[in-house]
Specification:
The protein is of the alpha/beta class. 35% of the residues lie in helices and 12% in strands. The chain has helices at residues 39-46, 62-71, 84-96, 113-119, 162-170, 225-236, 245-256, 258-281, 303-312, 336-353, and strands at 26-27, 79-82, 103-104, 124-125, 147-150, 177-180, 201-206, 219-223, 285-286, 293-297, 315-316, 318-319, 329-332. The protein binds pyridoxal-5'-phosphate (PLP). The site of pyridoxal-5'-phosphate (PLP) has 13 residues, from helix 3. Residues 31, 84-86, 110, 150, 154, 180, 182, 206, 208, 214, 219 line the site of pyridoxal-5'-phosphate.
């Protein structure tokens, strides 16, 4: 080994879902929104003045912070924004998980958590989900260095009851509890109101799913002003200008158009519930997803096989070759038409497999 290599911070990176270059594809693999962002976003982009890019953006991203705070009935001091919730979560791990004790997150969950823990040398433990793939709240009552999990969880889509979340937060007031609400807008209950009661709670959300802006990279965290101040101190010690001018202006428009946002979320929920029924009719076992995806398994057709058959037909879904979930497919909810093509293909494939 070359000598300097001994001193390199070596990490095994997170593997994001594929972004295939396939014109004919139906893309149901990375939980993007099938609908465009709010119309005001396009208006802002068309009106962008390239000359303004000579100047640095507002380091506080004040306009975006204020708009988010207003929309959620919070004070500006309770909101932090970053370059997607991945940036917000990574900054939060760095800022809050420094006790040297293991942090806790489920064995089956968003697969970026262990990557950040490894990157920042944070010890961690992964309590197993129960046999119904639910988070067991009691696993989070033992001494720990902090807690993070998504609600609804990924890739199961299962929601944890607000009272159970509150119990976890209440019993862990010596550490920071982060609830990653990437999918909360598709029918689950947000823990944001609890930040008024618990100063150890950080709630993280993203514009990537429910606001159709994965390509713009905007995420935010809501919490007690002291938490937000610590997060900003870390951010200003790393990169003062995380949010660019375009993202700030476009993000503001997306939040202002509440009607469009609610409409889009409602359409996705309707399509999800319809797709659940169709898949159940085809014999699939499903979890009761409250997210913009379905996690499904078929008793006679292996998930890996169906994944490949779909792929060959230019329909991309996500498959995790991981213990306990390696017979499941995660299917993002697309438009009704896209989901119809998906269902029709699966129906034809399954009947072709079982003669008679
Ligand atoms: C998509 C997702 C994120 C990251 O979203 P970005 O805002 O695009 O970085 C974080 N957590 C979970 C559970 C997600 O599914």
């Amino acid at each position: 080994m070359i000598k300097w290599e001994a001193n390199v911070r070596k990490v095994v990176p997170y593997t994001p879902g594929e972004q295939p270059n396939d014109e004919k594809m139906i893309k149901l693999n990375t939980n993007e929104n099938p609908y465009p962002p709010a119309p005001g976003v396009e208006r802002v982009l068309r009106g962008m003045d390239a000359d303004a890019l000579r100047l640095y953006p507002d380091p506080t991203a004040g306009e975006l912070v204020r708009t988010i705070a207003e929309a959620y009935g919070l004070k500006e001091e309770q909101v932090f924004v970053g370059v997607g919730s991945d940036d917000v979560l990574a900054m939060s791990f760095l800022t809050f998980f420094n006790s040297g004790k293991p942090i806790l997150f489920p064995d089956i969950t968003y697969s970026f958590y262990d990557v950040w823990a490894e990157l920042f040398r944070i010890p961690y433990k992964r309590p197993a989900l129960d046999e119904h793939f639910c988070i067991r709240k009691e696993d989070y009552f033992a001494e720990n260095g902090g807690i993070v999990f998504p609600n609804p969880n990924a890739p199961t889509g299962l929601e944890m009851a607000q009272s159970d979340i509150e119990e976890i937060v209440r019993r862990n007031q010596d550490v920071i509890v982060m609830i990653d609400e990437a999918y909360v807008d598709f029918g689950a209950q947000s823990a944001i109101p609890l930040i008024e009661k618990y100063d150890n709670l950080l709630v993280v959300q993203t514009f990537s799913k429910s606001r159709s802006m994965a390509g713009m990279r905007i995420g935010f965290a809501c919490g007690n002003p002291a938490l937000i101040k610590y997060l900003n101190d870390a951010k200003y010690s790393f990169n003062s200008y995380t949010m660019n001018r375009t993202a700030i202006s476009a993000g503001v428009e997306a939040v202002r158009d509440r009607e469009y946002f609610e409409d889009t979320c409602r359409k996705i929920v309707e399509t999800r519930e319809w797709a659940k029924q169709e898949l159940e009719t085809l014999g699939f076992t499903l979890m009761d997803s409250k997210a913009n995806f379905i996690f499904a398994s078929h008793p006679s057709c292996p998930a890996a096989e169906l994944y490949q058959a779909l792929r060959d037909a230019h329909i991309y879904v996500r498959y995790f070759p991981k213990e306990r979930i390696d017979n499941y497919l995660r299917v993002t909810i697309g438009t009704k038409q896209e989901m119809q093509v998906f269902i029709d293909f699966v129906k034809a494939y399954l009947s072709g497999r079982q003669p008679g």
